[in-house]
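Deliverable D4.2, example record:
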Amino acid sequence: MTATGTRVLVVEDSALMRKALKTMLIDAGGFEVFLARNGQDALDQIPRVKPDVITLDINMPEMDGLTCLAEIMRRHPVPVVMVSSLTERGALVTLEALELGAVDYVEKPGGTVSMNIAEVTRDLVDKVRAAAKVKIGGLRSRIRHANEVSYARATSSPSARPTGRHPTVSSHQEVDLVVVGASTGGPGILSDVLSRLPRDTHAAVVVAQHMPRSFTGALAKRINEGCPLPVQEVVLATALLPGQVYIARGDADMVISRRPDGLIVRPMPANAVHRWHPSVDRLMESALAAIEPKRMVGVLLTGMGDDGAEQMTLLRSRGGRTIAESEESAVVWGMPGQLVAKGGATVVLHVDKIAGALSSWL
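Output generated by the structure prediction step:
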């Protein structure tokens, strides 16, 4: 960052959108903004501009966003925030971008050329500021990890994927439920961690990933393609069964409750008490009311803020176990960092050790 503020390169083929995004950032204060009309123009400018953050459109002529992103990560690793339309196609491509190394995304509320783009000003500004704090060393580690995961997926079946070394942590307690929380940088990490779980996992896995409704269905489908366990988005009250993965629906919360015939998981309207949704804290609170803490594991992955830290700390204090992703591998060490700060982490692990720990406990 320079004395004039965070240097942001806005890459967008629409002149109207370039102007709007620049205005949103300049008006927020603390940004020096540069403009590129497509992916090739961006690659030509990066060595000269030396941006701290890049906002990158997906649909562009000459060189599209995904191709440009791959080249940025190969040539000049810089934190990238994708700008995507709220469509099923947009969701799938954005998820691919997150797996390639983008740290976050902002949705265009009105399509490719969004006349109401100003609605997402706060989201854009918050995410660009957060991206500017991502350490390049951690970003390079994340890119290497993503490449290794992509290679592993291409060369092996889900059941044959290695889980990595298991930490030396006692595994004498039987586990019925794993609660996973993630935000910024989470989708790619989730795909990796869940794809490495053993096929004979006897615990149910519930996931709260901060994400809009239009994205979580696509996320569940994408994870399901490479996961040895069945993966589904929770859109109505659903029996909570062992050996299955449940993804919370976006723009809502997900809770667990006990009925005479067993446990269920169901979506609930977002609770204003919680800032982020689907709320990890609300999911964890409901799990603590329905299941013995000693039969649960909480996992807090990369993300801004502190969602999940309070309730997972309570889980550990009541006899459960927790994993916090390490600062070394987290895109943003907010949520897991807060769990560590509160003394709520049983272990703190690099992302490539998390699946191994879970496998040893499950």
